[in-house]
Amino acid sequence: MKKSIRNIAVVAGAASAAFALAISPASAVASTVWTVSPNPASITAVNSGNIVLSVNGIAMTCTKSNGAGTGASTTGNPATVGKINSIAFGASGAPCTSVLGPVTTVPTTPWTIVAQDYTASTGVTKGYVGNVNAKVTVGACVFRVKGKASGTYTNSTGALAVNSVAGELTVVESTGCGAAVPVGAKPTFKGTYLFKVGTAIPTIVGSNP
């Protein structure tokens, strides 16, 4: 009996140690210092290539898009290193289009630029555009999209490349869209914006002191 109790104690102790090892990495959140230069930054952005919102195989394409926002150094992980205070899709003479007709998008801002990981060798920050909220009208179809969109920012080019995956964005309202764009649909948002502060390219650098 003593041997059995001793064996149980050993097993229980090993299980407790394994459990502690398993939960420690998940519970430990490293504080990351994010340095935005210049700080604070007043940023303008224009698209490079098409900006595309796709829902259930229907591509809504904009050849013109621009925005403005701010950037600032901060700490934390994830951390909000910037805000998109205004963003426009389409322009006079260059409306956004789809197989269903012209597309009009009215964003509700600010959207956030959130940093999660930085690779010093490439100068690339991984993260996402958060707090995405936009009303989209295509003919009689009107729907609202909310969520986030994964992306990367490259210091050498000033390129914010947005490349969301299914599930990050959700259609939360839909009127007159039928089965084409139902509530609960999972759109994707893809496109690249080039950031500038005046004529300079802003940079984002992450470190773990």
Features:
single chain, 209 residues, mainly beta, eight-stranded antiparallel β-barrel, three-stranded antiparallel sheet, 53% strand, disordered N terminus
Topology pattern, helix = H, strand = E: HEEEEEEEEEEEEEEE
Which word captures the global form?
A: globular
- Terminal residue distance: 53 Å
Class derived from helix and strand content: mainly beta
Strands, total number = 15
Q: Radius of gyration, rounded?
A: 22 Å
Which runs of at least 5 residues are low in confidence (pLDDT < 50)? 1-30
User: Averaging pLDDT over every residue, what do you get?
Assistant: 88
Strand content: over 45%
Widest sheet: strand ordering:
2-5-7-9-10-11-12-14
Count of discrete alpha- or pi-helical segments spanning 4 or more residues: 1
* Helix fraction by DSSP (H/I, runs of at least 4): 10-25%
Q: Summarize the main sheet.
A: 8 strands, antiparallel, barrel
